[in-house]
């Protein structure tokens, strides 16, 4: 049995602490995933959340809906952490901050900046909740910088029985290494302690370069910049190169052209959708629209990009040693099969961590390359993904938990050496599968109850 510190559930008050009854359908950001839950709960505090979880038959936690996989859909209850948001406490000496797990990343940045702290790294979307970003191993880019979950030093987890477990890197480490990246299958993360750093500014540089000139010098690019990523257009083999580096220069103001960039992207995607083959020609014209830019701002304002054109996404993390070859082969496969797509292929670098279900977990501590393919949400993503995924899997890629893929339970056992440990712990914490939905049961190879 588990031997851990826990707080017993608060006594029931008879009050309704959430929204019950028949609820409108839920869908994710791209519109691909749908659910008709039996209830939608928005608990005002942790005690209310614990009562609801304790008395529930089945519950899934929802964040911003930015996962493309069916992690949320359930016929049971959907629970939102939106009211468990904000800064709880912080320590000036250690540069640590305790936050409610429902805090959206776009709120976390200014809150931390207000106390002189900053998260070391973020992805290029900041709509997610803190709990959602941790649970799916959401990441940014930087060969020395791990995923967002690796910045956590302690967690507070509400179990299926409504108990509260505290775990950290120094206490109950097995639970911590399982719960930080757990797809919401162990319980509800309500609080997170983050290891931050003093607020810092970044200089962003964006330029367009030929991919074939970048590939031989990739290692040099990666080592010279704190953050480095490519957005590759496979038909033209041109790449948008984005680098971020720490600077003492003062902020240079807002980024220019975001609205016009969105308009151009949406128009290009619509033309690609209606006129087969035009996307390939548009990619060859991209040099007319991408001009070199440079700006400086506080890190939390630089990391995120505006994403107003919806899409569906597949992403795999492949070993560092073969990442460049894999990218080249994915581009060739897309071009050879003449897939109608305008969105570029995203290529990033992420440092290793030690979480049991993290796609970046590795005994040797080797960084991985992230390769993402996107398809406009009004287009069928299957032709593109069917071409890219065999290449990504051939290179021993691990799928991003929030991005579409076809990996099954048998595949996971070969990709994740700690999967069985995770499943044993999950069964101990939640023997009746309260936090599972059909997708997770299938993914983990578990019988449907």
Would you give an account of this structure?
- InterPro entries: ALO_C, FAD-bd_PCMH, FAD-bd_PCMH-like_sf, FAD-bd_PCMH_sub1, FAD-bd_PCMH_sub2, FAD_lactone_oxidase-like, Oxid_FAD_bind_N, Vanillyl_alc_oxidase_C-sub2.
- The protein is α+β, with helices and mostly antiparallel strands and 449 residues long.
- Among the domains are: 87-198, Uridine Diphospho-n-acetylenolpyruvylglucosamine Reductase, domain 3, CATH 3.30.465; 201-399, FAD-linked oxidases, C-terminal domain (Vanillyl-alcohol Oxidase, Chain A, domain 3, 3-Layer(aba) Sandwich), CATH 3.40.462.10.
- 27% of the residues lie in helices and 24% in strands.
- It contains 14 helices and 21 strands.
- It has helices spanning 46-55, 105-113, 130-135, 173-179, 211-214, 218-224, 258-274, 278-284, 299-303, 323-336, 382-394, 409-415, 419-429, 438-443; strands at residues 6-7, 26-27, 34-35, 39-41, 59-62, 77-80, 87-91, 96-100, 117-118, 152-158, 164-168, 188-195, 197-198, 201-210, 227-233, 238-247, 293-298, 311-319, 345-350, 368-376, 398-399.
- The chain has an 8-stranded antiparallel β-sheet with strand order 17-14-16-15-19-20-18-21. A 6-stranded antiparallel β-sheet has the order 1-11-10-12-8-7.
- Helix 7 packs antiparallel against helix 8 (278-284) and helix 10 packs antiparallel against helix 11.
- The longest helix has 17 residues, at 258-274.
- The radius of gyration is 22 Å and the shape is globular.
- Mean pLDDT is 92; it is low at 1-22.
